[in-house]
Specification:
This protein is an all-alpha fold. The protein contains four helices and no strands. Helix 3 packs across helix 4.
């Protein structure tokens, strides 16, 4: 598969994951600024943002198809962990909001929590496999 020694392969993988997270964070921050743009340029910016998200989804799909069976299972289990953790966190937050003890949660915070939960699920799954 890769010809890199294991420590360099792990660093390379981590760098790719962090670069992907940086792109997602930058896209999220760009979406926050759409409300402050004039209508005409805001439409163009929204279109560019949607195109960038589509390109990112396509690249992720391409990368997923290149994974072997074990890696696919690990990412699938990590997604299962992420969905469960985020749903549990959303239930708690919504209950606290219903009591008036917390402000509304921004959708980008939910997305960040989903990414963090996926990372945690990937660590748990990797620990169980190795």
């Amino acid at each position: 598969m890769n010809e890199l020694p294991p420590p360099l392969e792990q660093i390379s993988y981590l760098a790719k994951v962090l670069a992907g997270l940086l792109v997602v964070i930058l896209l999220g921050l760009a979406s926050l600024e759409l409300a402050h743009l004039p209508l005409a340029s805001g439409r163009w910016a929204a279109g560019l943002l949607a195109a960038a998200c589509g390109l990112l989804a396509w690249l992720g799909y391409r990368r997923y198809r290149q994974l072997d069976e074990l890696q696919r299972q690990m990412h699938g289990r990590a997604c299962q962990w992420a969905v469960g953790l985020v749903l549990a966190m959303l239930l708690v937050v919504s209950a606290v909001q219903a009591l008036g003890m917390a402000p509304a949660v921004h959708p980008l915070a939910v997305a960040a929590g989903l990414i963090a939960a996926w990372g945690l699920g990937l660590c748990i799954t990797h620990h169980r496999v190795s």
